Amino acid sequence: MNRPDHSPAVVSPALDRLRASLAAFHQSTDEAAAGDAAVATVAAAQTLLDALSLRTYLADPNTNDRGEQIIITAYGVDLSIRRRDDGVFVHVDSVDMPPALLPLIGEFNSSGENVYSEGRR
Q1: Total of domains in the chain
Q2: The organism sits in which domain of life (predicted)?
């Protein structure tokens, strides 16, 4: 349901579209159908990447990063994950979260929910 205080679903439909186009590609019985499905798959993949605002950054050799940084954005919240020498580092940034969606509530490893009401910058 799309209510004024909630962002419309964009990731689920994009993921469903990608799955459907991949299935159509794998089930195609002729070259034309396979070509159409391949074009649809590329478009669906782009839509999903855009919906997640998925981006990566290579590890900086001057830091303790051991792997690329992966960032996705949903509801104005950036989730950043990267491997470091001392483990896996997760960073959540809600600076661009729309005020109507506040507060940010999170949980790590089933340790219980916490409300993060950091002041707006």
Answers
A1: 2
A2: Bacteria
